[in-house]
Amino acid sequence: MTTYTTHRVEDHEPFIFEQLLPLIVGYARASNTPSEVVTMAAWLCLSTILQAKGLGRDTLLKALDAARLDVHEAPEGLH
Question: pTM for the full model?
Answer without folding.
Answer: 0.72
